[in-house]
Amino acid sequence: MSRTSLSRFLIEQQRKAGTLPPDLRHLIETVARACKAISHSVNKGALAGILGEAGTGNVQGEAQKKLDVIANDVLLEANEWGGNLAAMASEEMELPYSIPDGLPRGRYLMLFDPLDGSSNIDVNISVGTIFSVLECDESVTGHPTEADFLQPGTRQVAAGYTVYGPQTMLVLTFGNGVYGFTLDRENGSFVLTHPEMKIPESTGEFAINMSNMRHWEAPVQRYVGELLAGKTGPLAKDYNMRWVASMVAEVHRILVRGGVFMYPKDARNPAKPGKLRLMYEGNPMAFIVEQAGGMATNGHQRILDIQPAALHERVAVFLGSKEEVARVTAYHN
Ligand code: AHM
Ligand code: MG
């Protein structure tokens, strides 16, 4: 059986006129290498003494796990030498990280959540890395600042995630479809196993943290109420529910077999539009989901159209199979 490695896939994309610039290809190769290293650490777990709390907090006031910090360091270290980035931003760092003077600088900006779903690490459930790539404006000559990152998701030139589950898989888009690669641990290469991933338009599966039900707004209460009502309700269908508490795992499940994922606004934090972060969770996942034929909104508008006002801005998320996301969005509007 002839296998397409990630490297071969990327070179082929580059050769198809104009679809993938060489520096973006290098950047993706570097990110993939970093994700392999993170995958090794995640797999070792307690054997390497890296489970548990790091004893520090991030800018959002969340306790960092040791593996959050390790994954962040791996991504920074791998990419600062690559020569393709002008700066990086991460869930784990308050401010953007500029490529140090003296190292080659490129024209891209990358944002990432180094280890998403990290409450799952200590209990051996899937976690993941999410990343989003933007172009740095040509007028920026010095070190990019937060303002240079504040571009809507429509400006992403690439996005992807790696899920560290029973298999480690890298899923990518450059804006012409979604491609999934499985890590072959024996030879250390990502192999194209899921070409042209497509989300089924309709679904019978939803994902939401039901324990927050009493805090949701009326349109979400109504929609989830209808899902729960099953065959005898207005949707005339029985639905199944899953909640991994790891967005990467939920989005991956939805890419493979359909479904709708929701993390709505919550009355406990009226000032925040949601829990998830727009720039390194909402946007890259929305780009991937749309490229796979699905839909992603904040209840009112397309996530990709939102003009961010801050690096760590939050967003309500409804994404997945078109029919369902369209329905819950219509209930809001
Ligand atoms: P994290 O980036 O701090 O790991 O938080 C994001 C995660 C998502 O992966 C997941 O969908 C959500 O938080 C789960 O939240 P909850 O524990 O409220 O169900
Ligand atoms: Mg996260």
From TrEMBL:
Cited Pfam families: FBPase, FBPase_C
One BP annotation, GO: fructose 6-phosphate metabolic process
GO CC annotations on file: cytosol
Enzyme Commission no: 3.1.3.11
Binding-site residues, substrate: 116-119, 209, 275
SUPFAM superfamilies: Carbohydrate phosphatase
CDD domains reported in the protein's UniProt record: FBPase
Name the record gives this protein: Fructose-1,6-bisphosphatase class 1
